[in-house]
Amino acid sequence: MDNAKIAERLEHLAALLEFQGANPFRLKAYRNGADSIRASSIPVAKALAENQDLTTWVGVGSSVAEKCRELVDTGSLAQIDQLEQEIPPTVLDLLRVPNLGPKKAAALFKELGIKDLDQLKLACEQQKVRALKGFGAKTEQAILEGVLIAAQANQRMRINDADKVVRALQEHLTKFEVLERHEFAGSYRRGKETVGDIDILAVTSDPAGLMEHFATFPDMSSVLARGETKMSIRLDTGFQVDLRIVPAVSFGAALQYFTGSLTHNVELRHRAKARQLKINEWGVFRVGSEAELANDPQREGWVAGRDEADVYAAVGLPWIDPRLREMRDEFQWADANQLPRLLQTSDIRGDLHMHTTASDGENSLEEMVAAARQRGLDYIAITDHSQRVSVAGGLTPERLLRQWDEIDRLNERLAGEFLVLKSIECDILEDGRMDLPDDVLAQADWVMASVHFGIKQTRDEITQRILGAIEHPSVSAISHPTGRLINRRPAYEVDIPAVIEHAAKHRKILELNSSPKRLDLDDLHVRMARMAGVPIVISTDAHAVAQLENLRFGVQQAQRGGLSAQHVINTRSWDGIKSWLAGNATL
Ligand code: DGT
Ligand code: CA
Ligand code: CA
Ligand code: ZN
């Protein structure tokens, strides 16, 4: 059993226990253990075989170590088997409903026998939920709204979850020896923030063998369909993976076709038609040729298809990055030979949003610094929460000033080899004031302002709060400006075009938060910011060292918005950012 599977089982156990109303610390222990095991380069099975003590691993306590031993020895956990007798698997979907905690979910199951989202929706509509103790008409309405979001989340996985699946599939497929070429296509390749299913294209001399091998993917639950060149499987998580085997001469055409988007492909085919050409998943054909009539690349009249760039070239276009294929400006740009040179992760020089154990982060200041240096960054800002966020250990002015003293001393030790900025993620309070006194904020190198409370206010109220923060002389940037949580919560009511306009006027920066739960601003809004000349800061909002890696999700989102390095402020040195903020540099 590999580490990913062990981690998944521990998380499943935590979910079942959460449903039972177990102690939150116990849940956290299993979840921390799962994170740590997933991140470890040492296989748990190997460590146990060598009689290593797993509790010496960071985040692994004795209960997690015991469960690991049981999983490796028996392949399952008796406690999960027992809990599953009592709790049907679909019930866990209830835990994914926003506005519904485990206690309420358990009550719905026990009192009303609700076992899945459909039954919950029906019970809300029939107004049975409001009759339960501790519920009411308002709660019922909130749950009903939540059910719709959760049902949608069941349909689409977040990009980081898709990424995990893709990595596992990648590892599995490359074990097949006669795999000549393969590529992940569809919305995953376009870098969308959620993915409906995963599409794989492959070239092999042994299609039957590859399908046999595909069917042994460890996370598979069933084969949905299997033909001569196409196979679909369902994973344990319920998501689907499509595998298509294509001839080598058609690989590029198939990749183009199955990458989409649908509307982008419609335009491409339309342009082909104007040139007496036809594009399909097999290649580019001259209309009326033998090859076209027989749909056979081997005959006369086949123009291109082996590589994707050849397909675009056949209609007189440069290759278009998959991140841009949403039928926005990509064809106009291509026609004018003005496709942007898209931002790359390696362009990013610093990360200006992260947390430490001083607020709700899991790692210390020193650990965050060491991890950021290891990733090759030049500078970071430590942006713990401000006092209003008391549940997350938000900092009072006194604690913040002490942290800044510590940062001063750390910078001395770093002797210019790396820079840590004195900073804060300061709440914009419900009444529009900043959560820390002006004289404190004035001493910061960098201030991010965030809305965390009062998110049910009207569009005008929330917009005014953010516009006010933009005007504050010490604020450098607005973080996660819409507050959306992907698959969990829609954006709060806020007028983003007004925010962008105001940021342009006051020379302020807007964040593209790279957390795969947020990706906020989204691709359309960063594109709007670029047009208005407002720089974007792409930051991780890391709450643990491993999350520094999330930067690539933000970069991908920026690419979808057509951003180049010049539009992203943290591709510059810290001095460069300071001079932009001071009005001494242009974008
Ligand atoms: P998803 O999976 O919902 O996140 O989105 P996609 O874009 O991955 O969609 P999917 O998996 O249904 O199909 C992958 C690509 O294949 C899609 O972007 C365009 C292409 N495609 C799929 N079905 C059709 C079709 O019926 N006609 C055409 N022209 N293209 C199709
Ligand atoms: Ca897909
Ligand atoms: Ca598909
Ligand atoms: Zn944050």
Features:
about 575 residues; Beta Polymerase, domain 2; five-stranded mixed β-sheet; binds 2'-deoxyguanosine-5'-triphosphate; binds calcium ion; binds zinc ion
> Radius of gyration, Cα only, in angstroms?
26 Å
Count the DSSP helices: 24
CATH superfamily of the largest domain: Metal-dependent hydrolases
Main beta sheet? 7 strands, parallel
Question: What are the distinct ligands in this entry?
Answer: 2'-deoxyguanosine-5'-triphosphate, calcium ion, zinc ion
Overall geometric form: globular
What CATH first level of the largest domain would be assigned? Alpha Beta
The CATH topology of the largest domain is given as: TIM Barrel
CATH architectural grouping of the largest domain: Alpha-Beta Barrel
Proportion in helices: 40-55%
Indicate the low-confidence ranges by residue numbers.
none
Structural class: alpha/beta
The main sheet orders its strands as: 11-12-13-14-15-16-17
What proportion strand? 5-15%
Residue-averaged pLDDT: 95
Number of spatially distinct domains: 4
Distance between the termini: 51 Å
Number of beta strands:
17
